Every structure is written in structure tokens, then in C-alpha cells.
Structure prediction request, 390 residues.
Amino acid sequence: MMYRDAAAEHSALMRDHLMAQINAAGGWLSFERFMDLALYAPGLGYYSGGAQKLGRDGDFTTAPEVSPLFGSCVAVQCAEVLRSLGRGSVLEIGAGSGRLAADVLARLETQAQLPERYWILEISADLRQRQREYLKKRLPHLFDRLHWLDQPPEEPFEGLVLANEVLDALPVTRFRWHANAVEEMGVAILEKEFAWAARRADAAMTKICRELSAASGGRDGGGWDDGYVSEYCARVGAWTAAVTQSLRRGAVLWFDYGLPRAQYYLPERHEGTLVCHFRHRLSNDPFANIGLQDITAWVDFTRVAEASREAGFELAGFTTQAHFLAGLQIDQEMRLAAGGDENLFARLANQGRQLMLPGEMGERFKAMAWVRGLDMPLSGFALLDLRHSL
Prediction:
């Protein structure tokens, strides 16, 4: 009861804050700004609050929460890069519960490829504290290698940048398509409730939407019905460049759910990909459980690929999560982790299926690699190369 009361109070404060922002903006707030505040407003946003977000008792489950096998395979890929460089550090962006960091470090230790430093860029004070407690308990002998950052490291470094389910939480611009115009979807207040409200898009947004329509197979919108609604993330380029700019040599690994642009903006996907997570229930209503639910959108991986070139990287790989894990021999990681314990192996095999089956996480989630100053094949992308689809 105390938790429910505290959650209701937190949600009410977040709601009041958003309504004040809408009123201060003249009665209309872009959805991008609304999403930004709902997720990241200091002390009030979803990622700033104190409630548990990941795992069985949270709102959603990520691959590292499903199984340590994910982190073990990521570590095998990291070890390849670190071995090639001869030395290096790892920067993880948005480390969630800390499980991925723990699993990667533990497996790197067994390969004698521990990084010089393992940085965690974490803007949530609450998550940062949870990560510290978890990692200090799990890997006390490696804790001195861990360093938390408020912004990307300023000094150039060699190694890797990792980000698992971070891109999907970047605020997006929402739009609605008409044959003779494009509207930007924003948020207004109607009878003391949040409500969608549209206004005519400016020339820059209209141009972007026409390009997205053309990429989906429609010609000047011919493929989209009147009223087609979707979204795009305007800040992907600047944000990815900022968090990777200090990587002088090495690889960047992105893991997230998403699609190439031509599939993302298909005419039949006429309501976009916006999805909210609350207590493991999914909805497309960003105005419910405000401050208590995650708000995400699928990733346009074509845009992420474009961002690699803009940031001075080479696109080195794009594949499904299932093929990434298979390329890093997840079956061997199961045997290694289980030792001779067949019961443990059976549990790990079940976890592995959840990570890899098409109906679970295997196809929806993708892996992408950027490289700079690194000329080597990456095993996680050896089995299936989907770069042509971008």
C-alpha cells in the first residue's frame, strides 16, 4: 500500500509538471519534448525515479536480465577487439541494473582480457546507485576498474562503446501524414487530461517525412494512407556522435529492437511503433501511468547507419540478435557456464531460446557495429550480414 501511494504521488507530481510545461508553452508541447520530460525530468521522469525498472519486479526485461549468456557472448566479441588493440577500455551507455557490465567483466576475466577501465555513462542517480551496489557485491575484486560518468570521457581512448536498449529511449518526433500536408503531433490539455493535438509541420519536418515515405516504397506519399501516423528520432545523429566521439580506435556495439527504414515505414505500419512498458504490460498510450512507465519507439537502423558515417566511423556489421549470439558460439558459452551440471545447462538452454527464437527476442532485436581505426572481422556479424537492407 505504501508503494502504491508513493507511486501515485510521484505520478501526480510528474503530471502537474508536464501540465505546467504545456501551459507555459502556450497550450501545446511537441511530443518529443513531452517524451523527454516524462522520461528524464530531474527527480520526476521515469528514469529519474526510484522504482525498479528492469527484471521480473520491474516494467520490462532486457537481454542481460534474461540470461548471463548475452553478456558472455558480448564479452567474447569485446575480447576479440581488445586483443587486436593490445589494450583498451570499455564505455557502457545506460547500464540498467548493472548485469551486462558484471557479465561482460566476469567473462573477460576468464579470457585474460580485462579492460583497463570500465566506464558507465549513467544519467539516472537512482540507477547509478543500484549499479554500484550490485557490482560491488558481484565483483568486489574488479570494482576499482569501474568508473561512473555524467558525460562521455573527454580524453581519447581505445576500446569499445556498448549500448543495450538505449537508442529506443531517445525522444522521438511524432507526425501524421496527409496527401497535401504533414502535421506534427503534440500534446495539449483537454478537460484536465493530456490529449493529442496536431499542428501543421514546418518545411524541414515535411521534407523529412516525404523522404521517409519515399524510402518505404511510396512516391511522394503514395504508399501511405491519409492519416498515417509514425515517428522519427531527430537527435540520433548528434547523440550517437557525442557518446562515441572520444573513441579513437575500436568498435561501437548497439543492441536494440528496430528495423531498416524501408521496413519501419511500411504502409501497413500506420500507427507507428510507439510502445509503453508498465509492469510487463504493453500499451501505446504515453499519457497513462505518467512518470511510472517507460516510453519507447523502435529504432530506425538506417538512420543509425547514416550516423556512423557522419561521426567518422565505418559500418562494420548489422545482423539479428540470434545470429550475433550464434556467431559468438552461444552453445559453447552454455557448456562453459554449466560445467558438468546438466540441470543448469537445461536452464541456460531455455534462456538461450528466449534470446534467440524469432518469436521471442531473436529477430526483433538487432546488433550493429561501428568501427574506427580497426581492420578485423567481428565474429558476431559473420553468419548473417544485413547491411544491404539498410
Notes: Residues 2-56+174-230 form one domain. The chain has two domains: 2-56+174-230, 63-170+236-281+293-389.
